[in-house]
Amino acid sequence: MRAHVFLCMLAWYLEWHMRRALAPLLFEDDDPEGARAKRRTPVEKARPSDSARRKTASKTTPDGLPVQNMSDLLNHLGSLTLNEVTLPGQTDSPFMLTAEPTPLQAKVFQLLELPTKPVFTAA
Length: 123
Fold this sequence. Notes:
Strand content: 5-15%
Structural class: mainly alpha
Radius of gyration: 20 Å
Shape: elongated
Number of helices: 5
Number of strands: 2
Largest sheet: 2 strands, antiparallel
Distance between the termini: 39 Å
Helix content: 40-55%
């Protein structure tokens, strides 16, 4: 039971950090200071920042990338493949080939500070 709760909390913590890092690509407010500046008092109802309103209205980021919800973004990331390639006549030396990431996938890797193309050795 404790291990299950621990794993659930760990998953929630990881998702929370990813949402904060990926906020510019998600339907989430990526300018909390701008949103805070719109309120006159701390107890006033929160309103989205101007950048969040622009993202929601245009459905695109300032970079021209489509704004996503978290599940759609994860599904899009899941389409990046790693293929084991074997050339005809050279079956003893297969190698790994990573698909070229889309601009959206490349931006996700940049925001998460991950390498765009993983480094693999021969299979």
